[in-house]
Structure formats: structure tokens, C-alpha cells
Amino acid sequence: MINSSExxxxxxxxxxxxxxxxxxxxxxxxxxAVGEAGSIxxxxxxxxxxxxxxSASIVQLEAEFGIQLFVRKHSQGLSLTPGGRFFFQ
Length: 89
Fold this sequence. Notes:
By secondary structure, the chain is of the alpha+beta class. It has helices spanning 25-37, 40-47, 51-65, 82-88, and strands at 8-10, 16-18, 70-73, 77-80.
């Protein structure tokens, strides 16, 4: 069982491991905006930044957590993966 106050990340086999995580509140703001909007373009409008900035932040978060947070459906926007939904909650 993992103590919720300790930093964790997913391993390649789907388990958790304790490790320090590094991300910014801005990256979290962008993640939430994309999760709510379902689109990088719409999220970028809401937080008043460029879509490439949002996209880069999401990619950095995914690398930091070691999981894919969104399924990219180019013409249909984005949807949260199971790991993304867990993190979003």
C-alpha cells in the first residue's frame, strides 16, 4: 500500500514505485483544462496560451509520470486514458 503523501509513479508493468516527481502547477492547470475541454485548441483558448505550449506541457507530464494521460484522436480531440482519469480525479 502506498502512503498518499509519498510521491509515486507508474512503472512499465503497471505497478507503482516511490520516486520524486517534478512538475509545475502550470502543467497541472493545462492538464485539467485539456481534460475538461477534450481539446488542446479549446484548452489553449481557455488559459490564453498557444496550443503547442499546452501540448508540450502534456508531453512533459506524461514523461514525468511514465504513463500516457490522453488518447489523441486527431479530428475528434482527446480523451483521458484510465491513468489520466485516475490522475484527473
